[in-house]
Amino acid sequence: MRIHVPEAASGRLSDAWRLCVGTGRFELALRRDYQDSLAMIQRDIGFRHIRGHGLLSDGVGVYRPYEYQGATRTRYAFTYVDQVVDAYLDLGIRPFLELGFMPAGLASGEQTVFWWAGNVTPPRSWNQWADLVRATVSHLVDRYGIEQVRTWPIEVWNEPNLKEFWAGADRDAYHRLYEVSADAVKAVDASLQVGGPAISPGADDWLIPFAEFVDGRGVPCDFVSKHAYTSGPAQHVPFGVHQTLAPAERLLEQFATPRELLAATGLAGLPVHITEFNSSYRPDNPVHDTALHAAYLAPVLANGGDLVDSFSYWTFSDMFEEAGVPTSLFHGGFGLLTHRQIRKPTYHLYAFMARMGEHVLSRGGDHLVTRDDTGRVTVLAWAPVDVTGGPPVDGHTVRLSIPIGGLGTASVYLSRSSVSEEAGNAWAAWCEMGRPASPGSRQLADLYEAAEPGRSHRSLPRVGGCVELDLVLARHEVTLVELTPVVDETPPWWDDNRLLGLARPAPQPSGRSADE
């Protein structure tokens, strides 16, 4: 069936899909290859904010207790903080700050999470924690200015509903942490944004108590945050996992729950930020590297902005060490990019979204059509994904009739870019190479080339004010089509038939042939 795309826009395409992106722990941003990778991301996609763990952990070195004249004192050192934030701002991206984890010198216990040992226990002194938060935020305001910092959301902790991230998953203790932290932030400037509770999937039962707590005690809260993933339990293998996946619609359902649950509370109407989302919550699941993954997430990017104010892909790069240093170039990392900046299919999905227009013309289960202010029309289309393990669909067809151009437009230029099992799929090429853990220079060159999307172009006739577009999609394909009305500037003397310099036969008088 052919879909007739309306000429009038139904609304604007939300920017929620790129308002934020995730990153490995804070101090990884000191690395040159990290900054090079983020620069590439910003050129092609242009995220607005970046969020990761570890701002207050020992690896960043902010909290520095010392002894002097018989008394214990505290110095706050922002050497690494300044270098990282300076680098972010130079690359056109702002922090989405996460307050965590606990400095060892302030921690009440020794429980840690991750290979890099972030401490997840409450502070032994709530006053000293408040001082740390206040000193950190004050420094950022002094260095970068309140007009800048008030655009940086500040989130209190990470997934406190999980005992791995907050000792005992103690909800009352988290509420106290939130109150102390929020009050400390607002003590610096009341216009700063602070929020939480940054819960993991399956913990929506924390939302109502959180709302009741902050409302009942008058605790500041400027936004609500949570995370969304769709993978099942981890089936461990050495240096990796396999997991089942729920349909991608489950991500959208998770996005929707905060507003639904909080509608009758004091937090109704606040911005909702999904500060982490992905298919798998594991940094070593190979599904992240595949073309299937791009097609799986395409409807989420196309529709998620109708439900939340942001949804932050976890993460932009495979420079990520929660489970240790990766043992192979492709290892199932979260990233849109591998180490050495090889673009995965999901990278291209995001880059395609960055080229979409502002005005939504049509949206369906397998496509999104937009137009920009110049009249360029863009189509994002994707093949269906079967998460039950059935064979991928080959030949899924999207048929559209698209209004474009104006008086005098006879043809339209079509440019198409695609990723699929066969195109723009460096992971497939790496598998065919035998999965080399450390590819050599020639193999890397082949992988960079394999990561390039498939591209094609042609001219389409404009008939009745529209072009007819028939897109036949390969297995797990995501395709971007850009349609531009042609303004023909061909000189009157140009003749394609004379490309090789051959003279054209002279026109013959009527009734005579050239052989006579």
Which labels suit this protein?
25% helix; 6-stranded parallel beta sheet; 7-stranded antiparallel beta sheet; alpha/beta; single chain; 516 residues
What report would you give on this structure?
This protein has 516 residues and is an alpha/beta fold. The chain is built from eleven helices and 25 strands. The strands form seven sheets. A seven-stranded antiparallel sheet has the order 2-18-19-20-25-22-23, with helices on one face. Strand 12, helix 6 and strand 13 form a beta-alpha-beta unit. Helix 8 packs parallel to helix 9. The protein is elongated. The model has no long low-confidence stretch (mean pLDDT 95).
Shape: elongated
Number of helices: 11
Q: Which range does the strand content fall in?
A: 15-25%
> Nearest-angstrom radius of gyration?
27 Å
Could you give a short account of the major beta sheet?
7 strands, antiparallel
Secondary-structure-derived class: alpha/beta
**What are the low-pLDDT stretches, counting only 5+ consecutive residues below 50?**
none
In terms of topology, how is this protein built?
Elements: E1 3-4, E2 11-12, E3 20-22, H1 32-44, E4 49-51, E5 63-68, E6 71-76, H2 79-90, E7 94-95, E8 97-99, E9 112-113, E10 118-119, H3 126-144, H4 146-149, E11 154-156, H5 171-188, E12 194-199, H6 207-217, E13 223-228, E14 235-237, E15 240-242, H7 249-261, E16 272-277, H8 291-303, E17 310-313, H9 345-354, E18 359-364, E19 367-371, E20 377-382, E21 396-403, E22 411-419, H10 426-432, H11 441-450, E23 454-461, E24 466-473, E25 478-485
Parallel strand pairs: 1-21, 3-4, 4-7, 8-11, 11-12, 12-13, 13-16, 16-17
Antiparallel strand pairs: 2-18, 5-6, 9-10, 14-15, 18-19, 19-20, 20-25, 21-24, 22-23, 22-25
